[in-house]
Design brief:
single chain; alpha/beta; UDP N-Acetylglucosamine Acyltransferase, domain 1; six-stranded mixed β-sheet; five-stranded parallel β-sheet
């Protein structure tokens, strides 16, 4: 019986998330649709070929208008309602876990529909900051596979490589555990690497492509970590020397 009520509660929460997603996407689409409609009306007397070219360009521009509006709306919602995550443990059915799911749903909405077009641009950094991340100067972000953004800290001139995953949460024994990830200055997080919650990466370190940093790993400054699970080059040499 308890499992039935849990399932019903999850369904209700899911449909509430869908409702908010529809509302947010609708608000972001409205300016884009108004722009496209204005071009539609202004080109009504043109030849079919010219009109189709202009409408095609207008439709493409409308997509970017939607994306910019979506980022602004999602960032504004986070700021207005102070949707920041806090480190700690939360029961899976708690308000803290529901808040975590809602915040990540907002981020995923942008990541899924628009973020590919802003990676490695200042717009990506702007959106990460809007979502609560603490970024230094000249940070380069080439991945949309991050979560729990308000628990993420990245120092000056660091690089997050393509498709790298950085998450600040884990699920253990029916509990959601949130813990910060701190990335120092001039760090390179390589292609397809995975950084798990609680990791602290020292200045100048390199996380090689495809590496996995386990929970709570402390990476020394200027060290090189590689492998699954990731080890420093010194640890790897010592292990093979035994």
């Amino acid at each position: 019986m308890r499992s039935i009520f849990t399932t019903i509660g999850q369904l209700i929460f899911t449909f509430l998330l869908y409702f908010f997603v529809i509302l947010i996407m609708g608000l972001a689409l409205a300016p884009a649709l108004l722009f496209f409609y204005s071009i539609w009306m202004q080109t009504i007397n043109l030849t079919v070929t010219i009109r189709m070219i202009l409408l095609g360009c207008a439709l493409a521009a409308a997509f970017f208008i939607y994306g910019m509006c979506l980022m602004a709306i999602v960032g504004l919602l986070r700021l207005l309602f102070k949707l920041n995550l806090k480190e700690g443990e939360y029961h899976i059915a708690s308000a803290g876990a529901a808040k975590w799911a809602f915040i990540n749903a907002l981020f995923l909405l942008v990541a899924t529909t628009f973020m590919d077009f802003i990676l490695l641009t200042p717009l990506a950094n702007l959106f990460y900051r809007l979502m609560g991340a603490k970024l230094g100067k000249n940070v380069q972000i080439n991945s949309k596979f991050c979560a729990d953004i308000s628990l993420l800290e990245i120092g000056d001139e660091s690089v997050i490589g393509g498709h790298a995953t950085v998450i600040c949460h884990s699920f253990e024994r029916n509990r959601l555990i949130l813990k910060k990830v701190k990335i120092g200055k001039k760090v390179v997080v390589g292609l397809n690497s995975v950084i798990l919650p609680g990791c602290e990466i020292g200045d100048g370190a390199l996380i090689a492509a495809g590496s996995v940093l386990g929970k709570n790993t402390k990476v020394e400054p200027r060290s090189v970590y590689c492998g699954v699970p990731a080890e420093s080059s010194r640890e790897r040499k010592e292990r093979y020397a035994e």
